[in-house]
Each structure stands twice: as C-alpha cells, then as structure tokens.
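Chapter review: from sequence to fold.
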Amino acid sequence: MSRMTVALLPLLMTVPAAAQTAGGEGKATPLSPRTPPPTWVAGDDYPAEAIWEHATGVAAFRLDVGSDGDAKNCTILSSSGSEILDRETCRLLRLRATFNPSLDASGNPRTASFTSRFSWDLPEPSASLKSWTRVTTISISAEGQVGRCQLSYTELPPDDNDARGCAAAKQMEPETIDALLGSPPKAIRLLLIEQYAPGSAGNTTAAIIPSGQEIYERKIRFDIDPKGEVANCIIVVDQGFDPLDSETYRCHPGVQYPVTPAGSRGASKSTIILVDTSDPRTTASAR
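The token string follows.
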C-alpha cells in the first residue's frame, strides 16, 4: 500500500500580496515586507483543532502597519469559513509579519496597510478498510517542556494526519500540563492511541499498546454504505480527561472509504489516552 507523504503535514500556500500606502504624493516609498510573506505561516502552524475538524479555506486580511514597520492590527476581510483559521491567521501575522515602513515624499516613515490572502489546505483524506493502530508517544519533562514526539503502527493508517497529535501537544495550556505532571511534578510520557477496525463488533488489536494510566477514552461505531460514505454513526464511549482536545473520531470524520458494492459494512474507531510515569529517563528534547 502506498503512503501519501503529503498527508504528514498540512499544506499552507500564500497568494501574491498587494501593498497599499496611506496618503502622501510625490516620490513616496511604498510599504514592503522585510521577509517573504510565504514564510510568515507554515504547514506546522496548522491549528490542531482545525485539523480535527478538517477545516480549510482562504482568509483574506488587512494588516495596519505602523511607522516602525510592525503590524499593529489585523482585520479579516473575507473569512476562510473557519473561525479557528481566521483567528490563527491574524495571530501569526501580528507575531511574524514585519515591514520596511512606507515613507512619504520627504522620507518620513508613515503608517500604511498591507492586504493579502492565505490559503489553508489539507490533503483530501482517503481511508482503507484495513485494521490499524497508531500510537503517538509524547515526552513531557518534569519542568513542563513538551519534547520528542514518536509514532508507531501496526499498519500504516492512510485516513488520518500523523502530525496532529504532536501539534496538539505543542498547543496544550500550561495548566493542562501541570495537571498531567501531578504534584510534585514528574516527567511523563503521554500516549495517544488511535485504532480503526472493520466489522460490526469493532474489535481492535492491542498489539503495540503500552501500559499506563488511562485518562481518556472515546469510541464510535458507524456503517460504511455502498458508496463509501459514513452513515449511522453513534458514540459508544466518551469519558475522562482529554488533554489534547482530540475528539478524533466524530460522526462525520470527513473521509471517503472504498466503494463496497456488496452492501454496507460496520466499523469502529477509538481513541485512548494514557499517562506513563514509569520511565524516569523521560526528558524533553527537540523534535
């Protein structure tokens, strides 16, 4: 089975921008970016919550730039269709976009505005009817630093994005991390275990599931109709504390399964999150 590497990281593209100067005539110098706009937002910046929801779209924005070249305000002119993506667009732009300020005819810096668009894109997901299990292991130091993120499988899952568990860990709030580390704080491994199994019973394999204290479990069952669409989805289990805000498997997972001319088939997906404190060597390190 071939694996689409493009699915490992969401894709983010930029559309050519236009700078607009404010007032003044003569040999005024227009506003210009100090760094290329495509570098302001990257695929790794895709919000974990937007990945869960398969949110995509194009956000048109305007940056109000001060006479010092810093972005002072961001306004969404045309929504991407996702509040999450709109909010993240402006947050990242205010953080990273810097400019050579616009100059009036006398060479004095002045305020100006910059308009452009960012296109947030995810690979079109496709799914297999094969069983699979994926374990994402996230190291967190006793000081609360999120470190290495590792993946292991029983079978390569083609219908999900490998990076999203790691991305969600990086976006955890300090209060959430403190709750996981306990008192006194102790280094841990956070284990996100995702499973898919065909069949009405939805039995999944525990072949590579490590030990640890279970803090969250979610399981859904659904049918795959002859066209490969998800139908009749029910939440069987949804309990505990989900520090990654995963909600990985909703009743509309946004994936297309193979056509099944023989009729509908049952399947299940589940998420379990464990905390493992058994390895004292767990340390945070750069991913």
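Two observations follow directly from the output. Helices lie at 48-52, 83-96, 163-170, 174-181. The CA atoms of residues 28 and 107 lie 7 Å apart.
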